[in-house]
Give the backbone structure.
Amino acid sequence: MLAVKLQELFGLAASPTVCRGRLAVLVHLLSPAGRPVAVTRDLQGFWQRGYPEVRKELRGRYPKHPWPDDPWNAPATHRTKQALARSPGRS
């Protein structure tokens, strides 16, 4: 099991695996406050089906954090939008 803030997995299309790729890790996706928002073994499916709803709900609650339309092509980050703007090139 892996518990990680959702923004830290931007850009990752496939779920992490163990056992030489035979077993997908159960991922607990967390809000910027560290609260669980989704649990999945299918990260690609989450980005396609679950993320739009999670984004819609949490974007208003956590406006300082990035909520891109396309999470596959967004840089993974643990920083706020303001912190990202101050130090370009770092995530």
In short: Residues 2-86 form one domain. Residues 43-61 form the longest helix (19 residues). The helical segments are 43-61, 81-86. The first strand starts at residue 2 and ends at 5.
